[in-house]
Amino acid sequence: AAAAGPLMRRYEGAAQGRGVAADGWRVCLAHSFEELRQPYGAGDVSLRDVLRHIGLGLRYFRWWFKKTRIEKKSAFIDLLCAVPLQQIYGCPLGGIGGGTITRGWRGEFCRWQLNPGLYQYETVIANQFTVCLRCKGQTIYQQVLSVERPSRLQGWNWGYCGHYAFYHALYPRAWLVYELPGQSVVLTCRQVSPVIPHDYKDSSLPVAVFIWEVENGRDEDVEVSIMFSLQNGTGAKEDRSGGHWNEPFAFQKDGERVAGVLLHHCPAVNPFTLAISAQEKAGTGVTHVTAFDPTGLGREVWQDLLQDGRLDSPAGKSRPTEKGEVTAAAVCASCRVPAHGHKTLELALAWDMPCVHFGSKEKLHLRRYTRFFGSEGNAAPSLSHYALTHYEEWERKIEAWQNPILENSQLPSWYKSALFNELYFMTDGGTVWMEVPPDCCAEDLQGPAGAGLSHLLPVLREYGRFAYLEGQEYRMYNTYDVHFYASFALIMLWPKLQISLQYDIAVTVVNEDVQPRQYLMCGQTAQVKMKNVVPHDIGDPGDEPWQRVNAYLMHNTADWKDLNLKFVLQVYRDYYLTHDSLYLRDMWPVCQAVMESELKFDTDNDGLIENGGFADQTYDAWVVHGASAYCGGLWLAAVCMMCKMAEVLGDTEIRQKYLDILNRGKEAFERMLWNGKYYNYDSSGSDTSSSIMSDQCAGQWFLGACGLDQGEFEV
């Protein structure tokens, strides 16, 4: 630390001069020193180790500066400009792979993920629901349903008392309840997104529905209007770039009519249309304002609604915005609720960004939903209509999926909450679900060495390509060492997406990328991707995923011990749950290739692989020496599954080969790691060697999930 101090101060000054937070630079070096400190006692750290980690910090800063300041691109992991934590987020809107818009638990629209894999953390204050109550021809109450008191739109009535509101989420639905103070009226807004297991159409749609249940506790009828206002854009600076415009629309099909406003957002890359709408039905009126200024006082919209509980509904499209100008629109649904009665108003939000470029802008990709709604950029009206006429069916399917678990008294409530609410990442993990081009052939997908995956093209043609980020700030798609854990959500709920993802990984396994690059942790140069090795990830959304893999450049993951094993474990797990024998036959040669590649890590031929004395697995700041409980356990589980797959496929020679390895490896694992009470972290004999690693039995867990944790296959 003493040696590092002057350098840290020097580079903090340089970083601040370039607009970088000094504590971000501290985080960069702290991450490095944490790896240094972790496996050793503090007294064991040598000057060489300190200098090595200072070197890491300098390499990272040099790479970060080139990427963000010279190339003007985002860093896939930005340790210097981390997004500040805000505990405001609630249930995101939208299906899988079409982008998401997140509402906070106070009802605000506060996070936007429309451009694939990229997030904008902007709370757009104009995006609101407003209620108007009228009795006997007079407006008695009009309130924005927000606790905020913003500097904009001050002609509106803000500052709803949060004491009279309640939020609840059970993904993919959420509820906001408003007990309007002094009005004897209760509003419940139920938001629904089409996230439905085993559904590969509706689950792809970029839509959400807001069902407003109105309970009138008064002794007289009340006219209730819900106004939904929305800014054209995402709150980013491009909202002011000019050329954006709005227009009203009405869409009728099968006797059902939907009306609202389209907000066309026209940047140079990835243009899109937002749509706000409501369903017209007996007793429900729908009106609109095509355009208003969300940066002004907003009095014209407020007074329009206040006057009669309706909006003026002008005809025709708005003019395109000038540079520096922002525009917004509003739609209003109104009905009469009888005394002590109940009525429902339904509004929807849809967004249509059918064709997208990733950061490199090399290829144009079509989102999954374009298969059903077209790719011309004019689908927002039909998406809105479909959502408003199908949400009841979605809810029936969601309840049929969730109720058996919710009603199971043997499961604790925290588990039920986590099981469903953590699934939000399926849609809000920078998720993309793309169609493969209709003229695509197997050679285009397989690469020069990918022949033999006979069902690759049929699977990807039918179900598309799926990818999600490691994290919203760890911007790598399908990071495989952690997908290992999350993959249960896919294989149990959308198994065809897991199969598709596995085919994509298999293609990259058998191909290579010989381009050299420097790895930041060690400073050494090696090729980006070696043949017969599972990639760390399939790319950065800021580049060109699937085409250029392994965005992660902290470590050279060709030497990681867990990636190959996790591929084998998932292949058999997927087969066990789907009984897809065609998939198993396609993956079998790939499994053999990665296991052959892994065998080189068994340096003493005792049937058990050894770690290399650096952070060579998913816990990438934890150094491991020799045999280890985590990687050794994954290895034995993978060997066990090779035996089982060989048995299923009738490959007796391979089965015997891996059965011999398994018997030797099990004996070595017990001898080298069991201390009489538990398995040691590793066999190095260091101060941390006898630690208990909470994840050390992950291999056994995976075997249990596949019915292989007992009898002859027990590891």
UniProtKB/TrEMBL annotation:
Short name of one Pfam family: Glyco_hydr_116N
Coiled coil: none
Record InterPro entries: 6-hairpin_glycosidase_sf (IPR008928), 6hp_glycosidase-like_sf (IPR012341), B_Glucosidase_GBA2-typ (IPR014551), GH116_catalytic (IPR006775), GH116_N (IPR024462), Non-lysos_glucosylceramidase (IPR052566)
GO biological process, one term: carbohydrate metabolic process
Domain Glycosyl-hydrolase family 116 N-terminal: 90-394
GO cellular component: membrane
Domain of life of the source: Eukaryota
MF-aspect GO terms: beta-glucosidase activity; glucosylceramidase activity
Residue ranges of every copy of the Glycosyl-hydrolase family 116 catalytic region domain listed in the record: 464-710
Protein name, as recorded: GBA2 glucosylceramidase
Species of the source: Oxylabes madagascariensis
Gene this chain is encoded by: Gba2
